[in-house]
Design brief:
The complex is a heterodimer of chains A (316) and B (463). Chain A has 316 residues and is mainly alpha-helical. Chain A contains 11 helices and 2 strands, in the order ααααββααααααα. With 463 residues, chain B is mainly alpha-helical. The chains are: A mainly alpha (316), B mainly alpha (463).
Chain lengths: 316, 463
C-alpha cells in the first residue's frame, strides 16, 4: 500500500488526514465486502474469486480511460462524463466476470450439489487462472491509470487536505451503497435474493427462479467489486495481482460487520479502513496489511458473528 | 430457435469449442498493456499454416496430453473392472452368487496388488539415478518432485483425511526452512546457544516449531466454519511471507541467506558429507518419502485416521460417538504443519539457500493441485498425481520462453483445479471411501444443510 506510505507521521499530527484516507479506503473495502456478503447470503460460501472481479474491473476502466483521456487534459464536463463511463465499465465488466465465475466455477458443482470443499477449491482455481491469465494477456507490469481529473485539494478539514480523489470515492461509494441497499430492500429482485438467502428450497416453491437469482446476486456483488477495483487503482495503478490483499481485507470487513449482513459489510468496511489507516502511527509500513488480518482473527475469537450479527436473508 | 440452441449435443460441441479456443489463447504468445489484443490475435494469427503445425501450436500438445491421460486412465479402469469381474464375464455363476467370498478375496488381492505396485515403484526409484545420469535432471527430480511429494503427503493429511482446506501451508514450509537456517547459524539472528548446529539438529527443532505454529493457529480457527479456516490460513501465509521478506535483522529480508552448510553426518567413527552431487540427496529424500508413506498409510487406518474420516463425513455424528472434533482437527493440522516444516529442512539443506520468493502463497496452491489431481485422501493417488503434475510442470519449465513464462504456471494449475472440481472432484485415482462419500453427498444422503438447500436448485431446474 504505497498509498499509505505518505502518511508516516504520529497519530496526533495527522489524525484528520488519516481519518479521511481511512474512510476513503473504507468505502472501497465496503464495496468489495458487499460482494462477499451477498454471495455468502445465498450460497453460504466464500467467493474466493471475488478478488479477480475487483482486478478485472480496474483493468476495464484502465483501458477505457486510456482510450478516452489519452494525453489530453479533460475539462470539467468531460471529467465527469469520463469518470461516470469508467465507473460504469468497471462495474459492468466486474458483473460479467462474476457471472462467468458463477457459470463456470459454481453452477456445475451446484447441479451435482457437491460438498463445500469442492466449491472453495474450484473458486481458488478460478481465481488463480483469472489473474494469471490477465497477467499473461495484458502484461505483468503496473499500468498507471490516466485519471480524468486533476487531484487538487478541494477543501480542508481541521487542516487535513481533502483531495478530488476522496470526493470521487465518497460520491461513488455512497451512491452505490445506498442504491444497493434500496434495491435489496424494496425491489422484486431484492425480495428474491432475501428469500433465497433465507431458505432456498421454500423460495423455489414460491416461484423464485433460483439460478437466476444467484446469477444476479453474483452480478450485483461483481458490479460493486468492479467499481471498487477502479476506484482503488486510480492512485496506485492496475496490476494483475492487485486483488489479493484488498480482497482479503474486504473479507475481514465482511466478517467484522457480520457476514451475510449488507449494512454490516458497509460498517465493517468503514471501521476496518479507519482502523487500518490510523494504525500507521503504530505499525511500520511493511506490516500495515497485517492489521486487517489481526482484526479478522480478533473478531473470529471474540465475536464470530460480527458487530451487527449474521442476518442472512433479513431485510438489508 | 431456443430449441435449437438448447440442444444438449450442440451445447456440448459449443463448450468443447470454447475450451479449445481458451487453450489456444492460454498457450499462445503474451500480450501487453499497450497492445491489449496482441496476445489474443497472436494466438490465432501467425502460425496457423498446416506444415508448421506442431511448433509453436502447443495447444495440440496439450490436447494430446489430456487425451493420453484420459485414455490411459480409462483403459486402466476398464482392465481393473474386467479383472475384478472376470468371473461374471466368464459366466461363472457360483462366484457371482457368493459375493461375500469374492469381496473378501478381492480385498486381500487388492492389498497385495497395491503392495506389489509400491515394491515395483520403489525398485524403479532406487534404480533411477543409474537410468538418468544427467545431474541437472537428478537435481530436478530431487527438488521439484520428491520434496513436492513430501509436502503433498503432508497436505493430504489436512485436506484429504480431515477435509480442512489449508491455503497457508507454505508458511509452515517457510518456518521449517528458516528454522534450518537459524539453527545452522546462517541468519542474522544468532543460532540457539551461539552454536552452529548440524543440520540434522534442525529437523526436530523445525518440526516442533511448525507444529507449535499449527496448533496456535489451529485452535482459534478450527472451532469455526471450515471456510473461515481457508481464509485465515491464507492470511497467515501472507503474514509469514511479509515477515521473512521485511525483517532484515532477523531473517535476512528479501535476500534471505545462502550460508546453509551441506548436510553432514558425524557420529563417532561414522562420517558422511552430502556434497554438490545430487545422487546422495536423491536417496536421502527418497528415504524420507518412503518413511512418510509408511507413517501416513498406517495413520490412515489407525484410530486417529478413522476419526478424521468420521469428522469429515459428518461432524455432528462423530461428536455424538465421543470423537472430539477440535482435538482431531488440530491434530491433523499440526501433523500437516510438521511435515511441511520437515520438508522445509530437506529443501533448505539441499538448495543451501532460503529466499522469500520461494514461499509465496501460490506455492500452497501448487501443492494443493498435487493433492487434488491425484485424489484427496488417497496416498497412492497423491503419489501418482504428484508425479504426473510435477512432470507436467517440468515440461512447461523446459518450454521455450517465447511461449511459456514461469509466471504462467499458476494459470495452468488454476484451470486444472476448476476442471478437476467440475469433472472429477474425487481426483484421478480416488480413494474408494472418498468416492463413495462424494456419491452419497451428491445423491442427497448427506446431512449437511448446505447440500439440502442447494439440492433444491436442482429441483427447480427439473420443474
Amino acid at each position: 500500500m504505497s498509498y499509505f506510505s505518505s502518511h508516516f507521521a504520529t497519530l496526533g499530527h495527522e489524525f484528520w488526514g488519516l481519518l479521511v484516507g481511512g474512510i476513503a479506503n473504507g468505502f472501497i473495502y465496503a464495496m468489495v465486502a458487499i460482494g462477499y456478503t451477498m454471495v455468502y447470503g445465498v450460497l453460504r460460501l466464500i467467493n474466493f474469486a471475488h478478488s479477480e472481479v475487483f482486478m478485472t474491473g480496474a483493468f476495464a476502466s484502465f483501458f477505457l480511460l486510456k482510450f478516452l483521456v489519452g494525453n489530453s487534459t479533460p475539462n470539467a464536463f468531460e471529467s465527469v462524463v469520463y469518470l461516470i463511463a469508467a465507473v460504469l465499465i468497471g462495474g459492468i465488466v466486474g458483473a460479467l466476470v462474476a457471472l462467468l465465475l458463477e457459470r463456470v466455477a459454481y453452477r456445475p458443482l451446484r447441479r451435482r450439489s457437491a460438498p463445500k470443499l469442492a466449491y472453495l477449491i474450484s473458486a481458488i482455481g478460478a481465481s488463480y487462472f483469472l489473474y494469471n491469465f490477465v497477467g499473461k494477456e495484458f502484461g505483468r507490469i503496473n499500468l498507471s491509470i490516466d485519471a480524468p481529473y486533476t487531484n487538487n485539494t478541494v477543501f480542508t478539514i481541521f487542516g487535513a487536505p481533502v483531495q478530488t480523489y476522496y470526493i470521487v470515492i465518497f460520491f461513488v461509494g455512497v451512491t452505490m451503497l445506498v442504491t444497493l441497499d434500496r434495491l435489496v430492500a424494496t425491489s422484486k429482485l431484492g425480495h428474491g435474493i432475501r428469500a433465497v438467502a433465507q431458505d432456498a428450497e421454500t423460495a423455489s416453491l414460491m416461484g423464485v427462479n433460483i439460478d437466476r437469482t444467484i446469477a444476479l446476486t453474483f452480478m450485483l456483488g461483481g458490479f460493486l467489486g468492479g467499481v471498487a477495483g477502479f476506484l482503488y487503482s486510480i492512485p496506485v495503478g492496475a496490476v494483475y495481482g492487485m486483488g489479493f490483499t484488498p480482497a482479503l481485507k474486504a473479507f475481514s470487513a465482511a466478517v467484522l460487520g457480520g457476514i451475510g449482513n449488507l449494512r454490516g459489510a458497509v460498517l465493517g468496511g468503514l471501521i476496518l479502513g479507519v482502523v487500518e489507516s490510523l494504525s500507521v502511527a503504530f505499525v511500520s509500513g511493511a506490516y500495515i496489511d497485517v492489521v486487517a488480518f489481526g482484526v479478522l482473527v480478533l473478531v473470529l475469537l471474540v465475536r464470530p458473528t460480527g458487530i451487527l450479527g449474521e442476518r442472512l436473508g433479513r431485510s438489508a | 430457435m431456443k430449441n435449437f440452441f438448447g440442444n444438449p449435443r450442440l451445447q456440448r460441441y459449443g463448450r468443447t469449442l470454447l475450451i479449445l479456443l481458451l487453450i489456444i489463447v492460454m498457450t499462445g504468445p503474451e500480450g501487453n498493456g499497450s497492445q491489449p489484443t496482441s496476445g489474443f490475435t497472436g494466438s490465432f494469427g501467425n502460425h496457423m499454416s498446416f506444415f508448421g503445425f506442431f511448433y509453436p501450436q502447443r495447444w495440440v500438445v496439450f490436447v494430446l496430453l489430456a487425451g493420453i491421460i484420459y485414455g490411459v486412465i480409462s483403459s486402466v479402469k476398464l482392465t481393473v473392472h474386467w479383472w475384478r469381474n472376470r468371473a461374471i464375464f466368464r459366466g461363472d455363476t457360483y462366484q457371482r452368487i457368493s459375493r461375500t467370498v469374492v469381496a473378501t478375496k478381492r480385498r486381500s488381492r487388492l492389498k497385495s496388488t497395491r503392495l506389489g505396485f509400491y515394491a515395483l515403484g520403489l525398485a524403479f526409484a532406487l534404480y533411477f539415478p543409474h537410468l538418468v545420469t544427467d545431474q541437472s535432471w537428478q537435481t530436478l527430480v530431487v527438488q521439484d518432485v520428491l520434496v513436492y511429494l513430501l509436502l503433498a503427503l503432508g497436505l493430504n493429511v489436512v485436506t484429504g483425511f480431515a477435509g480442512l482446506l489449508d491455503l497457508g501451508y507454505v508458511a509452515f514450509y517457510a518456518i521449517g526452512a528458516y528454522t534450518t537456517a537459524w539453527v545452522t547459524g546462517s541468519l542474522p539472528t544468532p543460532p540457539p546457544f551461539g552454536v552452529h548446529w548440524n543440520t540434522f539438529v534442525a529437523i526436530p527443532v523445525a518440526i516442533v516449531f511448525a507444529m507449535l505454529c499449527g496448533v496456535l493457529l489451529g485452535i482459534p480457527t478450527l472451532r469455526l466454519r471450515g471456510d473461515y479456516l481457508a481464509i485465515v490460513t491464507l492470511g497467515f501465509g501472507e503474514i509469514v511471507y511479509l515477515f521473512i521478506n521485511n525483517s532484515y535483522g532477523i531473517t535476512g529480508g528479501s535476500t534471505g541467506t545462502n550460508q546453509i552448510p551441506f548436510l553432514s553426518f558425524h557420529l563417532g567413527p561414522i562420517k558422511y558429507l552430502w556434497g554438490l552431487i545430487p545422487e546422495p540427496y536423491y536417496y536421502l529424500t527418497l528415504a524420507f518419502v518412503v518413511i512418510f508413506l509408511i507413517v501416513f498409510s498406517s495413520l490412515e487406518h489407525s484410530r486417529v485416521g478413522r476419526s478424521w474420516v468420521a469428522i469429515r463425513e459428518d461432524e455432528v455424528a462423530a461428536e455424538s460417538l465421543g470423537i472430539h472434533p477440535l482435538k482431531y482437527k488440530v491434530m491433523a493440522f499440526a501433523i500437516g504443519a510438521a511435515s511441511a516444516g520437515f520438508a522445509g529442512v530437506v529443501t533448505a539443506s539441499q538448495t543451501l539457500f532460503v529466499t522469500p520468493p520461494t514461499f509465496t502463497i501460490s506455492f500452497s496452491i501448487n501443492i494443493l493441485v498435487l493433492v487434488i489431481f491425484g485424489g484427496m485422501g488417497s496416498i497412492f493417488g497423491v503419489v501418482l498425481g504428484g508425479l504426473v503434475v510435477q512432470g507436467f510442470v517440468a515440461y512447461l519449465t523446459h518450454s521455450p520462453p517465447s511461449v511459456y513464462n514461469a509466471a504462467d504456471l499458476y494459470m495452468y494449475l488454476g484451470a486444472l483445479l476448476v476442471v478437476m472440481m467440475i469433472y472429477r472432484p474425487a481426483g484421478l485415482f480416488p480413494s474408494r471411501r472418498r468416492l463413495r462419500e462424494l456419491h452419497l453427498i451428491e445423491g442427497g444422503v448427506a446431512p449437511d444443510t448446505l447440500q439440502v438447500e442447494i439440492g433444491a436448485h436442482r429441483v427447480q431446474e427439473d420443474v
